[in-house]
Amino acid sequence: MMIRTSTASRIMELFRFGFTGAVGMLIDKFLIRTILIPAVIFKLGKFSLWPQKMQSEN
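Now predict its structure.
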């Protein structure tokens, strides 16, 4: 009985770890990278790291 409880506990712990990782990856993929980062770059304006045209020497 003790071995089964210990094994079930370990499996549930692994499930929670995997589920939390998967949810974190989905949040990163669909919210952070697609909405938050472009919004922050837009708000930074000229201070963002977008490539800009080179100034001519004239």
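The radius of gyration is 23 Å.
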